[in-house]
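Please predict the structure of the following assembly.
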Amino acid sequence: MATSADNGAPALEARHLTLSWDEGEHVVARDVCLVVGAGEVVCLVGRSGCGKTTILHALSGLTQPLEGRVLLHGEDVTGRPGRVSYMLQKDLLLPSKRILDNVCLPLVIAGTPAREARAKAEPLFERFGLSGTERMWPSELSGGMRQRAAFLRTYLMGNDVTLLDEPFSALDALTRADMRSWYCGMSRELGMASLAITHDVDEAVTMADRIYVLRGDPRSGVPSAIAAEVAVPRPAGNVSAAEFALTPAFLDCKREVLGLLG
Ligand SMILES: Nc1ncnc2c1ncn2[C@@H]1O[C@H](COP(=O)(O)OP(=O)(O)OP(=O)(O)O)[C@@H](O)[C@H]1O
């Protein structure tokens, strides 16, 4: 696992988080520990309702854990929002703004003059596969292109840790597969630390370097916990995600994760 260059600490670390949505009345997850290094894509998988989003909220600082700490490059940021990027299923592009102005929004909100923000964003359009869309409206773009624009907007927030809450699930199957490959390549290339939650085991094995398996049933009073950490045997060289999905290594890993989910 890669660590940040400056102090050797992981980009993101959760230490013994215990979480609740109602200040301790109902515990959703207990003693959650995980790390994500720079240049890594990590998935957190678990059945619906087991507490994945609750964990992501705590990691983003939107909520305060009952116990435990969240560290960014070794710094305690527990309960402090705004330090990591957060990608949702919906792209949340503003329909009344052209794509260039949409992706510039975080910079403009942070006080960067619009002209300067555009100058910073424009050179990135090609890298994000968005060339030619600068002057277009969100309604003119396909779902995949809109999602790329949302990723560029997130990237411009300047955080090197990104949390993803099932960001591809609103896309059709083919676009979803393309976007996963594209995103993971981009995230690794830029040295970002990405943590994605999903209940789709195929998606997790396709995307991740490592998978944390979350198990429990908080609705029945059984708080979730990390049952295991599984390393994904990523194929060497230029093997496409579709080809990887047909290999024994992929199927073995998928079987292991499904077994752990119970
Ligand atoms: N405000 C709330 N009121 C009642 N129950 C809640 C609230 N917030 C979370 N929960 C409960 O906490 C548990 C965890 O919810 P969470 O959304 O984190 O799960 P999840 O794994 O992300 O689910 P999904 O995959 O369906 O999105 C669920 O059992 C849910 O019912």
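The chain is about 35% helix and 25% strand. Residues 21, 28, 46, 48-54, 199, 218-219 surround adenosine-5'-triphosphate (CB under 6 Å).
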